Amino acid sequence: MDELNVQVSLYNRHRNGRYSSYKGTVGKVARNVLHQHFNETVPFKVLHTDVTQVHLADTKWAYVSAITDEASKEVLAFQVSNSPNSKLIMDTLDELTENIPEGIKPIIHSDQGWHYQLNYYTDKLSEKKFIQSMSRKGNCLDNAPIESFFHLLKTECLNGFPQCKDIGEFKEITKNYVDWFNNRRISQKTKGMTPCEYREHALAV
């Protein structure tokens, strides 16, 4: 698309207000453990997280923080807020710990967003014995699995950003989508199974 100078008009409106969590080095920058090797097949081994934003009809923004499983593509945590603050990030981690088996110690890969560098986040990962990994600065391909999920969310669920009237409506629509995505959406990447079916199949082998 770059070579042909082609752009997707679906995203042009949003680019004018694109959210960026990168504020430089404000805390600890973890090493990149994955190096774009997205070939994990066992669930709960490698997870991806990020934050994205969606414009609402009331001129406000909704911020989505999610965590997905690289192997099963399952959405393990999905939180929505009107602010990309520490509570949004910690609520996401809390939801994750409720949805994974006890004693699991996955790699959690993110970009270099400011919230992923600060002590409240890194200390929580250390407490849970999760392994932190970060993308290189300004390289979205280093975290392609979560970027792919956000793309599907915005195209399949929001259908080109139809503006939800407020954050309450946005939460309801996206909650239903995540349930459908995990339990009904099949994919070649998960051998024709849903993410939850793939997880159960892979763990039973």
UniProtKB/TrEMBL annotation:
Residues 39-203 form the Integrase catalytic domain. InterPro entries: Integrase_cat-core, RNaseH-like_sf, RNaseH_sf, Transpos_IS3, Transposase_IS3/IS150/IS904. Pfam families: rve, rve_2. It comes from the Bacteria. This is Integrase catalytic domain-containing protein. It comes from Companilactobacillus futsaii JCM 17355.
